[in-house]
Design goal:
alpha+beta; six-stranded antiparallel beta sheet; single chain; 31% helix; three-stranded antiparallel beta sheet; 11 strands; 5 helices
């Protein structure tokens, strides 16, 4: 009931701001208090504090175990992002060297302007619901044609020279980033009528994933933010990220469509361990005659 929900929220608040080491120590202490089972006799505090509410401490132990697991997953996710970023930067360096070699007449075919195609299909999340499944023609796999492609090798927008009030004290620099664009087929009513699995419709951009790295923020209490600005065409807009010193703003030109801000549709906006993650997919627009 409501009382249980309040208790769980209070328990979760106990873990906020705690390090993994402190939480592991807390877990050992909680495990001692949570010993016993349903139907067992009362448990008394060894320090003389009276009867221990083992049911409460078992709830604390359950919530703490989940919280520690989430922390570990978040840490693994961030390490993977850093590895992907390092790979991307190595590719940038290789492309830059190839481009320089081509200009000097040393052979090679020059650098790529944008990232190469997707590295595998992205599976449609279960949260997209029965409506999205029903919109796919018979015989077409749910993830048919859906790809994630690296975004960033040629998509960053040049904001020109800018003066910052803190640049005399701190060296301004651009943040590192690892971004991806999600493409796929839009199986709306019109495309269902005019296309099929053997003759699919043109692919469209269906969403983006931005991971911006701010490990050295001077003001640790400041949360980086994003804002949308008009572009040179109504079909596009500028997505600008701002965090504060010592980082300069960074911006990207993206498709100008309505975002779906439902978590079930993949929306995420978090700032954890120095990484700003903004993931979003575009809202579906169903065809009407």
């Amino acid at each position: 009931g409501g009382t249980h929900a309040v208790t769980v929220e209070e328990i979760r608040s106990m873990f906020e701001g705690q390090s993994a080491g402190a939480l592991q120590k807390m877990k050992k202490e909680v495990e001692v208090k949570a010993r016993g089972g349903i139907g067992a006799g009362p448990t008394f505090d060894s320090s003389g504090g009276g009867v221990v509410d083992t049911d409460y401490w078992r709830t604390v132990l359950d919530q703490l175990t989940v919280h520690l697991a989430k922390m570990e997953l978040s840490e693994i996710h961030n390490r993977m992002l850093v590895r992907q970023l390092e790979k991307l930067e190595k590719r940038k360096e290789a492309l830059s060297r190839a481009s320089t070699g081509a200009e000097r007449g040393e052979g090679g075919e020059g650098g790529e302007a944008t990232a190469s195609g997707g590295k595998g299909d992205e599976h449609t999340s279960a949260g997209e619901g029965a409506m999205a499944m029903a919109a796919i023609p018979k015989g077409v796999e749910p993830d048919f044609g859906n790809l994630e492609e690296e975004l960033g090798l040629g998509s960053e927008i040049d904001l020109g020279l800018a003066n910052y009030i803190w640049q005399e004290k701190y060296r301004p620099r651009k943040p590192r980033y690892f971004n991806r664009v999600r493409t796929g087929y839009d199986w709306n009513k019109y495309n269902q009528t005019h296309y099929d699995h053997d003759n699919p419709p043109p692919k469209t951009v269906q969403g983006y994933k931005f991971n911006i790295f701010y490990p050295d923020l001077i003001d640790k209490t400041t949360t980086p933010r994003y804002m949308l600005e008009p572009a040179d065409s109504n079909n596009f807009c500028i997505l600008r990220f701002r965090a504060g010193p010592p980082y300069e703003d960074i911006a990207f030109k993206i498709i100008n469509r309505e975002w779906s801000k439902s978590r079930k549709r993949g929306f995420r906006c978090t700032f954890e361990r120095g990484v700003l993650s903004l993931y979003f997919n575009f809202s579906s627009h169903w065809y009407r005659r």
